[in-house]
Amino acid sequence: AADELLAAVGPGDLLVITTHGQGAARRWQMGRVAEKLLGHASAPLVLIRADSP
Q1: Count of CB atoms within 10 A of residue 17's CB?
Q2: Do 52 and 21 touch, CB atoms closer than 8 A?
Q3: What is the DSSP letter of 1?
Q4: DSSP conformational letter for 37
């Protein structure tokens, strides 16, 4: 999924994705897609926790 998003992003885009819900002990972790996007996205990225209201 990350590769498809990276290929589709263009100038002026904003990526907004949710992280998958995890238990309290692993809440600090992100999914693989989010981690890859953080390291490679050419556009601004907003991550929203799955348990956010």
Answers
A1: 17
A2: no
A3: -
A4: H
Instruction: Give the pLDDT confidence score for residue 24 in this predicted structure.
Output: 54
Element (H, E) at 3: helix 2-8
Q: What tokens does 30 get?
A: 């992100």
Determine which helix (DSSP H) or strand (DSSP E) holds 51, and give its type and residue range: none
Give the C-alpha separation, 48 to 41, whole Å. 16
Tokens of 26: 């692993």
Helix (H, G, I), strand (E, B) or coil at 46: strand
In the DSSP assignment, the letter for residue 35 is: H
Note the pLDDT tens digit of each residue in 1-53.
Answer: 899 999 999 999 999 998 875 555 455 567 888 889 999 999 999 998 877 66
β-bridge partners, 46: 16
